[in-house]
Amino acid sequence: MGHLAQNDFFRLFIGFSSVCLAFFSLLYFFSEPVIFIASIYFIATCSWDSVRAKIPNFLNASLAIAGLALFFYNDGWAGLVTGTGGLILGLCLLIIPWLMGGMGAGDVKALAALGALLGPSQLIHVFIYMGLIGGVMAVLHYAFERNLVAKTSGWFHTLMASALTKDPRLLVPETTEVSRFPYAAAIAFGYYSYLAFGKVF
């Protein structure tokens, strides 16, 4: 119960907030195909990611196919090239954080799928908003860790022990399982921030 009341509560709260925002956008922008499709995707993805800490491949594939199909319907082969460019850009923007273990493969695929719907010129602005919001979410997420005080105390004692013994090996962190926050929510908030505030530059 304590675990749910702290770290899990934050994860579920963030996920629920993003789902509510997506649902509101779905109703408000009902006549806008791109926003409508994105909102359906975010309702499903943020719900799933918040509860199961995973973004299913079939949701990402569905968005990517819908985005490419919409581009092709509107602009023909040129539109298909644009959508493909957005998909590739989405993969490239998060491939390094994924290789470093900072996020799951589903998060990378989610941004790529969104790129297939938006194209590269819009995706880059969504990415910047997503990065800013995701950074704040990460700080809050780890602040809600159950044993944050104990960890901070442990880090301090480890630092003091390393300084006193002059043994830098003590500073090497132990390998532990790191809980994650639903990054699908960060992508959703980044997308809707772009809709609300426009281009970053």
Write up this protein.
This protein is mostly helical and 201 residues long. It has one domain. It has helices at residues 2-28, 33-52, 57-99, 105-118, 120-143, 148-165, 183-197.
Helices, by number, come to 7
Strand count, sense and closure of the main sheet? Answer: none
Count of DSSP E strands? 0
* Order of helical and strand elements: HHHHHHH
Q: Write down the Rg.
A: 19 Å
Please state the overall shape, judged from the principal axes of the Cα atoms.
elongated
Oligomer: single chain
> Into which percentage range does the β-strand content fall?
under 5%
Which features does this protein show?
single chain, 201 residues, mainly alpha, 7 helices, 80% helix, elongated, disordered N terminus
Would you summarize the structure shown here?
This protein is an all-alpha fold and 201 residues long. 80% of the residues lie in helices and 0% in strands. The chain has one domain (2-197).
Helix and strand topology:
Blueprint: H1 2-28, H2 33-52, H3 57-99, H4 105-118, H5 120-143, H6 148-165, H7 183-197
Helix pairs in contact: 1-2, 1-5, 1-7, 2-3, 2-7, 3-4, 3-5, 4-5, 5-7
